[in-house]
Amino acid sequence: MIVIKGVPASSGIAIGKAYVLEDEDIVVNRDEIPKEKLRRELRRFKAALDATYRDLDHAEGKVLKTLGREHVKLIDTHRLILSDPLITKDVPRRIMEERVNAEFALSEALEMVNRAFEKIEDEFFRERRHDLFDVGKRLLSHLLKREKRDLTSIDAPAILIARNLLPSDTFTLKETKILGFATDLGGRTSHTALLAQSLQIPAVVGLSDATRRIKNGELLVLDGDHGLVIVTPTAEAIEKYQRAQKETQRETRALETLRGQPATTTDGKRFELAVNLDSPEDIKMIQALKSDGIGLFRTEFLFLNRTAPPGEAEQAKVYSHVIKSLAPLPVVIRAADIGGDRLAHLGLDEPKDEINPFMGLRGIRLLLKYPDLFKTQLRAILRASTHGPVKVLLPMVSSLTELRSARHLFQQAHEELEGEGYEITPKVDLGIMVETPAAALLLDHLLTQADFISIGTNDLIQYLLAVDRVNEHVAHLYDPFHPTVVRVLHQIVETTRRYGKWMSVCGEMTSDPRAVPLLVGLGIDSLSVSPRMFLRVKQIVKYLSAATASQAVIQALSLADSEEIHRLIGQLVQPAGRGMTE
Prior knowledge:
The radius of gyration is 26 Å and the shape is globular. It is about 45% helix and about 15% strand. The longest helix is centred in the first third of the chain and has 29 residues, at about 40-65. The chain has about 575 residues and is an alpha/beta fold.
């Protein structure tokens, strides 16, 4: 028995035979390009760029379906890399000045960056080079007209052993028979590791030479909790890990018993527990969870991978299907939170040189700039509203003018449909996402026009703390327990209560077991959770005392240090640990 120690990347245990993936080394030759053919070489490179952009559009739809909106940011990162001057300017310059083929010019540019990354000591920063290589590999594959590696062709359950897996390899694993994977390279902060966690696939990375020491077909135990790969395990080792697997399964079964039970605290306070929906293809899974409805239906998927916006009839059909599938439970449909970077693909004028698109033309700003696009979606939702209870949610609102303009268009859409003879629900609530500091501070005025609110903690926290969550230099400063965040959330809740309006939270905090007690203590009416974490969050709510959590929040409001708040809130759930399922 051989034990190879690596870095735990994604928890879980897998027992099965090894499938050793051969390293995909791409050999690039230097070819001299005659002067009269250099323009043709540039066009060939441009065609490969366009094809890679199409790959990313396709991947975005797949990631959205499989992993949810949060991981779409990875695709956005790859798009940024593809538009970097390293790719768009340095490679064409090399082609023209050195008169070399596009493949060689690209590989030289990538190698220069690789040498720079090798000098970085910080693991997190060093791991980012794999995103660059992922994009570079896609480009090279198109230039060389090579078939993409297809892991779905592995036809038997196996543990994948590879020199390295790029993010584009990893997010297809859910469609395969792979039980888990181990790689020679990589760290716990790599996108591959983060994707494995979201996919709930056991993984160990940083094994150095596993591909050399492990042979195809050898029996393995992969321990993602402790970062171990055991080759040809003894009978005793197999029995030990099988017992651990059964314990995990037992905990999972305990969670399953919560399906259909109300999310009620130990002292009898009932919370609505809804789910977030990224794609109608997840409807059956959501129905099986027996939630209290859909607290956030993200409609951005309708605007991806197409050259024109979706029409009214197409949208109405999608919304009707979702609403009917959940009726009589409520569905909160958010108007498309798309940015200016999507406009060119939809045949609309895109803003030029947006340096920071996250704070640019997006959400309600974009929808009001293109009222026909906005009204089409509003009409579609209203047409679908007869099939069950539905609410409309506006993204990125930051002023009363925006809300009034949106309500005016909403009323126009209502009157137009009635005039055209459509049967529609007389009153559909129109609410706002509270995800900007402006909305939080102006909430008393906004609630005179808004029927309800949903707190988008992801953007709200990053704007409050001036922290870009996807910027590796400052991401560690993104902190839901920051005293400012706790105080602003408390202010939002108190203001909304004063106006007697319904409120929900739909950001990542709802799916974070550490943060759920804070939200319960704040007294939020409804939590909208990722499907993957739904039962776990319900379990935490049922374990808590609402009164005790409320007292903890009052105490937290007087604290000035996030670590103190974290420890205080953590005490509410810590005694249970894994035993909460017992």
